[in-house]
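Archive entry. Fields below.
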Amino acid sequence: MSDATPAPSDAPLTQLVLELNAWVETLGRFGLRRRGEGPDDPDCLVRASDELEQFREPAKAIIVWLELRGRDADAAEADDAIAGLRETVQQYDAGELQPLFSEQSDEPFDPLDQLIESASRAAGRLEDLDGLIPASVWQGFGDA
Amino acid sequence: MRDPWPEHIRWFLDECEGQLAHEVLTSAGWADLRRHCGDLTIELDSLGRRTIAQRIDRDYARLHEQLRGATNPASTAASLLCADAVAELASTLAAIQRFQAVVVTPHASGLAGDTVALQNPGSEPRRDHEAGKRQPTLTVAAFLEWTNLSHSTLNKYARLAKVPTPHRGERNFRYTWADARKILETIIAQASDGRIRDKCRTALKNPPEITQ
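PREDICTED_STRUCTURE:
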């Protein structure tokens, strides 16, 4: 992948990976605590599913485009990567993730860590996929 | 091609907020939505866009399942899943609307692999050279209704005829007309029960409307 940020329409999957990685970084630094809208508004906790929503439309456009270009296996891989993350996010928001304890670590692997790991894994899968898809596949993507 | 309705579904389901799931599922709006998704699926299928058609079918089925299972409106998990199912179907329809010009372009899969690659850079050559010829197809339900055979008989002879059969839990599977004929011919040749053979002969003489 190039170091330069590509235009979203030229390389939508690269763009999605970049944005997903940026979200992973934000999660790692601030968790799900976000600044209030006004300067005096207090910080607030947001739902992970609300944050993930920003990726739904771009991801779905990529998946449908890949299917339109006859790359069903690639579309299925992208779909599966995002679906796996979505499932973790729903479990997180529903309070279904429990801290995990391991013998190798004194600290528990808490739900937020699990969420971050899931997001990071999804981004990694999409990045791998991006490396396999020729740039020509995206020709016309930005025209729509 | 009909308008995929991405906003319509969001609007309809927003309107339904606070209603009980069974009220939504028995409403005229839902019947409209079901008909719309069905028609759109058939239309995409006839354009050779089977994978996309299956995606709508799957998203619709998931939303339907979530609504049917939404017995406890107070459950956070249930409401999250339901909202997700709505958003998934809506985003699929939005993507189809966005790429509508490509969707309605004749699907090049019936051409030889190299030609496809030239016309559709980056695409993989289709393995099934028959796939893009807009062959008439039959759903399993339509096949059973047409032939009056049982599900188990159909599966047994489809395997004997060595035609593709639906995987476990696979929705929206369709038999091609050629495969459907092959199954019936296998039954006529191999079934020991004369009534079953007669059913198949009758069916072959009266093909369903979709194959004509």
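CURATOR_NOTE: The two ends of chain B are 22 Å apart (CA to CA).
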